[in-house]
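Researcher: Last one for today. Full complex below.
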Amino acid sequence: MASVKKAKSDASSAISNTSKIPEAAELKQLYRNMLLIRRFEEKAGQLYGMGLIGGFCHLYIGQEAIVTGIQSVQEPQDTVITTYRDHGHMLACGMDAKGVMAELTGREGGYSRGKGGSMHMFSSEAKFYGGHGIVGASASLGTGLAFAHQYQGDKGVAVVYSGDGASNQGQFFECMNMAALWKLPVLYIIENNQYGMGTSTKRHAAGEFYQRGASFGIPGEKVDGSDVLTVQNVARQALDYVRSGNGPYVLEMSTYRFRGHSMSDPGKYRSKEELEKAKAERDPIEKLKALMMKELGMSEEDFNPFEKEIKAIVNESAEFAQQSPEPHPDELWTDILKPVEA
Amino acid sequence: MATQILMPALSPTMTEGKLSKWTKNEGDKVKPGEVIAEIETDKATMEVEAVDAGVIGKILVPAGTEGVQVNTPIAVLLEDGEQAADIPNALFACGRPGLSADAPKEAAPVQTTATASAGSAGAHITNRDILYAQGKVIEPPVFDENSYTQNTVTMTVREALRAGMSEEMRKDESVYLMGEEVAQYQGAYKISQGMLDEFGPKRVIDTPITEHGFAGLAVGSAFRGLKPIVEFMTMNFAMQAIDHIINSAAKTLYMAGGQLGCPIVFRGPNGAAARVGAQHSQCYASWYGHIPGLKVVAPWSAADAKGLMKAAIKDPNPVVFLENEIMYGQSFECPSNDDFVVPIGRARVEREGTDVTLVAFSIMVGKAMQAAEKLAEAGISAEVINLRSIRPLDTWTILESVKKTNRIVSVEEGWLYAGIGAEIAALVNEHAFDYLDAPVARVGAKDVPLPYANNLEKLALPQVDDIVNKARELVNK
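Model: Here's the assembly. Have a good evening.
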């Protein structure tokens, strides 16, 4: 298992590096959930290529272990918020693949009835608060979710995702300051996929992401985000720390995005060799598969049922997303404001 | 040589204060920096320090005196060796207006707004917000305002804002107040004075000076059902936070297909105060008025302030609440009934008239009222409309007035370019063109960053005579 580096901040780490390999059923669940995101995103890329999905479309392929691992150790009252690379987060939160795909195609059956698109989906039922298109906004809004958890005393934690690019935003630091000051129950996840759009972290960020909260006394860890079991282990302990009233925690998830920033990315900023190497060494699904083959003695064929189940879900979502009608023209005028109660 | 100690101004808008206490007596020696007295305004208590060394020769204004004008001599300071008997009589002059008392003379006796009718009876309309979005002219919401104006109390706009917030916070545990200096300092402009004591630190929260962060934080908490009131020390600082006000608060309901609301109030002083320079003096009415998904209000009187504050807090949508620093200390009659809530989207006809309509909001309503007085002296009958809401705009009341007077002057403190007056001109063009006897006229700030110099600032901001002159041009009198 990948090692966990300790943040060099004064704040002491809450994370221990000892963990047992989970039961077979749990491993299978993690594998299945990551595979759902992978195949869903591949299908979304396909539909985009066919002109069925418009605008921006940011795929999560390569990063699946992060949201899958963290979501697997959350409590039901916890809330989640992220930026625009959000399809994986929604599926991990338990949102219906049909509704997500239909939103991508801009149809009535989408989570926002076709009015949000890829970057703007929400489900208060699944406690998923978006889907935000402005880089860095999720950090502030998510700290507000944590504020509400504390205010309402519901023992919930806000799991707040940002990318390496977003974590350079001033508001990220403004909110870490307030979160530490007020001991808000917030777990900041920095998904470091090595590129803020086309600018590598070497060119856009000084210092280490996991130390970004150090000056506020917020402990941080750097985690191998391609290893779902490491993610799960670290997230469990970080969530315990936060839930116990100790204030925020930062986890930098080192990862790699296998596709472009968005569908329209020419990819000139990184070499083919670099990409191929990452795909060979850091594919979270392949890594878990290898572990399951070793630990559970599974064969290639034993993974076929997963493919079959997921293929059915994804195909059904694609079908639904194309058959669901476009929103009625009257929808143009709804949801601008909520009516004032008499 | 003996010198006068003058009543100091504590803030750009302070015009008078209470000399609450002398900490030195006649005959006491004082050194520079030593505290000699305490003064109070409705905003703050502050110590007066001696500037020069000497002996307090004569106290001219006794402790406990209220309403001492800025720059009034309050004591005479003797140099060492001088006797009180040596003081020239001229220096004893008390209550003399200050030589440079250039703070705005807005502060007025109690103003009454109960003279005119409340305009349209209003209408109950379903899907009102959709009709507004479609640009339809509809009657404003029903509001029997006159039934509330029977029982009133005199209060300042500041007290009215506080009362509005406090009444709603007592009723609804999910309402909280957040901002810079709102708690322990008691509010930079003392709007939240006493609220920390009443509601405690959980609900009245001092923030760091990080507008972008705390505005976003408040919006996030509103997604979870809390009802934040976010105070910006001035709306100028809200530019740091405008991304969250617009992108996060105003647009999310629509982008979420109606799933996720954002009940939040963003409030603070807007527009010019008194000689605080270009960065602290901007009017944002047209900025926020531009955005679907926001409601924008701008009260003038104490009744507006309280009634709109309660409406804003109760509203399930984001509301931008534009106050005015100079208005904070002004007194009005305000309905005492706790149920007095001014519906957002409803203007008020403050003064009825037949020759020309003056439409204004916030501090400019007072200027328009003064202009109407002057016009009356010239035989011109002006109708004054207090917009109260910028978005949605009470287009009905504006158009009904134009149909009657056939002339309209829009008055705003902000720049005219792409301003509220431009919107009103378009409205009247589209819906009442045939009623016009003269082109729609606009009065507003000169198209320059607001200068600091006293004379230039006056030139840049709309004055009563600008309104009078514009109205006279329209009626050719």
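Chain A touches chain B through 50 residues (CB under 8 Å). Residues 1-10 of chain A have pLDDT under 50 and may be disordered.
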